[in-house]
Amino acid sequence: MRIKLIAADVDGTFFDDDHHYNVARFNQQLDWLHRHQIHFAIASGNQIGHLQDIFAGKSDISTFIAENGCLIRTHGKTIFEAKVPRDTWVKVLDFVTNEYPEASFGLSAAEGSYLRQDDPMLNDPQTKYFYGNLHVVKDLRDFQEGVYKLNMRWDGVDTKQIAQEINAHFPDVKATPSGFGAIDIIPANINKGLGLSKLEEHWHLTAAEIMAFGDNLNDRQMLQRAKYGYVMKNGVARFPHDHFEVTRFDNNHEGVLDTIDEKIIKA
Questions:
Q1: Which among 50, 121, 180, 236 could bridge 132 via Cys, Cβ 3.0 to 4.6 Å?
Q2: Which residues are CB-neighbours of 88 under 8 A, at least 6 positions away?
């Protein structure tokens, strides 16, 4: 096994359920990876500002596949981005607000995140955690640009079924459950697997040189793209028809770090 890039999802994968990770252990690993010219990337549905904030002052991570692949940045340089055009996201927003008025709806753009001032989850702790550079507005439709992502969140619903309904109505976008009662809506041809392919091009790698970790449905294409795709032990039930490798331990017991040690550093 000759790995040159490791990519990991964050919540439910790299982080435990309390949004923590073993900083000391990972930094030792990261130093070893750097010395052996192996790249490490975070691949998440979250926005770039949030991802940079949660690792700032802790670990020297400089490569991010953000917004489920809509924005890819390494060492401060954007190497790829894709947006949902305004006319498209407004139509999607009109549909979902009519069909699911009880849900929280947000926009993720280059300038930050946007929520309505009457959004039901505006003061929710998860909102404060996940939404970086938050702008509270009267009407989301006042935003005049394309966006990386629309996000829906609410409790106690079948997000998989609702995502399927959105996809049936709007072929130009892709709605995917992303965990924590959320659905991410992004351009139809964008996903974390495409994000990996852009890093392959940038660093002249092949999929055979990539290891990836994920726990949810928005990780599927990334795990398929990488030759060594690992689903977390805590996420196996979400992939009943896939045949990914499975980590020995779940996200609460450092499953990603354990696999890096076992398969790369100590191999």
A1: 50
A2: 170, 172, 173
Look up residue 22 and give its two tokens. Answer: 């073993």
Q: Are residues 38 and 161 in the same domain?
A: no
**In sequence order, what are the beta bridge partners of 177?**
183
Q: How far is CA 195 from CA 96, 100, 257, in A?
A: 27, 30, 22
**Domain count of the fold of the chain:** 2
What's the pTM? 0.93
Cβ-Cβ contacts under 8 Å for 77 (sequence gap 6 or more): none
182 and 94 in a common domain: yes
Shared domain for 92 and 164, answered yes or no, is yes
| Domain assignment of residue 196, given as a range | 5-81+190-265
Q: What CATH number does residue 181 fall under?
A: 3.30.1240.10
Q: What is the rounded average pLDDT of the residues 170-189?
A: 91
| 3-class state of residue 110 by DSSP | coil
Give residue 15's pLDDT band: very low, low, confident or very high (50, 70, 90). very high
Q: Report yes or no: 193 and 72 within 8 Å, Cβ to Cβ.
A: no
What are the Cα distances from residue 20, in Å, to 10, 131, 206, 251, 253? 10, 17, 31, 10, 11
- Alpha-carbon distance of 120 to 156, in angstroms, equals 14
Distances (CA, A) of 184 to 33, 99, 175, 238: 31, 16, 6, 17
Q: The sheet that has 71-74: what strands, in order across it?
A: 77-81, 71-74, 63-66, 39-43, 5-8, 210-214, 228-231, 245-246
